[in-house]
Amino acid sequence: MIERILPPAVASSHEYADVLDAELYPEELTVAARQSAPRRGAFTTGRHCARRALHGLGVAAGPLPVGAAGEPLWPAGVAGAITHCDGYRAAAAARTTEVASLGIDAEPHAPLSAGVLAAVALPHERDQLRVLARARPALHWDKVLFSAKESVYKAWFPLTGRWLDFAQATVRFAPAGAPEVDAHTGRFSARLLVAGPRIGHRRLSTLEGRWLVAAGLVMTAVTV
């Protein structure tokens, strides 16, 4: 389903269950050997999806080692992201001639705990969530916000190599009457509250994304 919120330049692949017999390269096996069985299944399936996404770009499949912050290291000339949650694993990739960076995230469509929401949402974002909940009460907008900020971070990190706190970007969802918005999908923008990286001749200050709620899942994607 993640392909529904990704632009045509991005190739993607997903699975609803772990592919336990998927091939791992030696560099990846070293990482997987240190993981619990559930985490190993998600890791293995994420790499499986990533290689299928790369195949969709015409890029030869190879190892995707883990960086110092736990991030997947993609081949030169490729921007990519991997996500996994209960019942869903996905990967997306694009050539950097088309997309400078991207982030994807999937979460179960269920409410956040009050403590997590307080850590994730700025005061004006919580006000926005209340308005959205009145307009479309079937959606857990707090989880959509959480997922959107996860995707923002995944797109930010490859460009900066730095952590981005939940409070360092503010997300605004497109209004219900906006083009291409229906009850279960829409757009959002994230304004950075810290200095963003330079992309070519401009400094990045806002990231644009899309969200989707379907089959019991929240999915978000950001492309730069």
Structure in a nutshell:
This protein has 224 residues and is an alpha+beta fold.
Layout of helices and strands:
Layout: E1 11-15, H1 26-32, H2 37-57, E2 78-85, E3 88-95, E4 102-108, H3 114-120, H4 123-135, H5 141-160, E5 169-173, E6 185-192, E7 198-199, E8 202-203, E9 206-214, E10 217-223
Question: Any overview of this molecule?
Answer:
It is a single chain. The protein is of the alpha+beta class. It is built from 5 helices and 10 strands. A hairpin with a 2-residue loop joins strand 7 (198-199) and strand 8 (202-203). It starts with 10 loop residues before the first strand and ends with a strand.
Rg, Å, rounded: 17 Å
Number of helices: 5
- Rounded mean pLDDT is 93
Broad shape: globular
Derived structural class: alpha+beta
Task: Tell me the β content.
Answer: 25-35%
Helix content: 25-40%
Are there runs of 5+ residues with pLDDT below 50, and where?
177-181
